[in-house]
């Protein structure tokens, strides 16, 4: 794998919408959905004033812009981390904590309470579909739309669920890894999972510039089989990249994102 000092081409998008407040836009998880008319929708987890919403945009290709359509709020969408779209206004989302209060959230993690959960949202129905996670984090879906993948950060696990017609999820298997698993990207061609990981997680939660957090990217192939192949594609002690959270591949290129550091562009 070659590290590339030159940045890839970046498409700079304008955001429009009469009621959208850019000053309170603090994006977190993102997902896209393309409908039968090839209209592309972008759904973004947002944290305005330390709260949780989902912002819905439509991609306008000719204008190279995003049109803000609506803000989604709900009492079950309280501590959003990541999202995967299954329709223009339909999605699964992870709540990484049960509590909203900062003090209670700290105790929730300290006591190891596995109370975080995953929600299915649509304009007509909102429900908890899976719970009992020790920090539900990343979420994504298989290219054929049949399986949902969820990362349980503090348990070091990737969970595989079968998606049903009524949007419920049934657990199929879990894979335990020797690292803290953050966000999940899925290769649309191969179905491989690419996961941004934290090999020394305590350094993420308690950042110390004298003991910087490292970065790690894991690829999982054939996850639905009895013997999936797990490969550490990138591992580094933090001198180049600190706190990797996400990794995405496209045509032989790998882009790694972080919590608070920079992004890294690599040739595989």
TrEMBL record:
One Pfam family in the UniProt entry: Arylesterase
EC number: 3.1.1.2
Positions of Ca(2+) binding: 30, 81-82, 137, 182-183
Cofactors named for this entry: Ca(2+)
Comment on bound cofactor: Binds 2 calcium ions per subunit.
Glycosylation sites: 166, 183, 237
InterPro entries for the chain: 6-blade_b-propeller_TolB-like, Arylesterase, Paraoxonase1, Serum_paraoxonase/arylesterase
Coiled coil: none
GO cellular component: extracellular space
GO molecular function: acyl-L-homoserine-lactone lactonohydrolase activity; aryldialkylphosphatase activity; arylesterase activity; metal ion binding
Domain of life per record: Eukaryota
Catalytic activity: an N-acyl-L-homoserine lactone + H2O = an N-acyl-L-homoserine + H(+); a phenyl acetate + H2O = a phenol + acetate + H(+)
SUPFAM superfamilies reported in the protein's UniProt record: Calcium-dependent phosphotriesterase
Function in brief: Capable of hydrolyzing lactones and a number of aromatic carboxylic acid esters.
Subunit record text: Homotrimer.
Annotated family: Belongs to the paraoxonase family.
PANTHER family the UniProt entry points to: PARAOXONASE (PTHR11799), SERUM PARAOXONASE_ARYLESTERASE 1 (PTHR11799:SF16)
Name this polypeptide is given: Paraoxonase
Organism: Myotis myotis
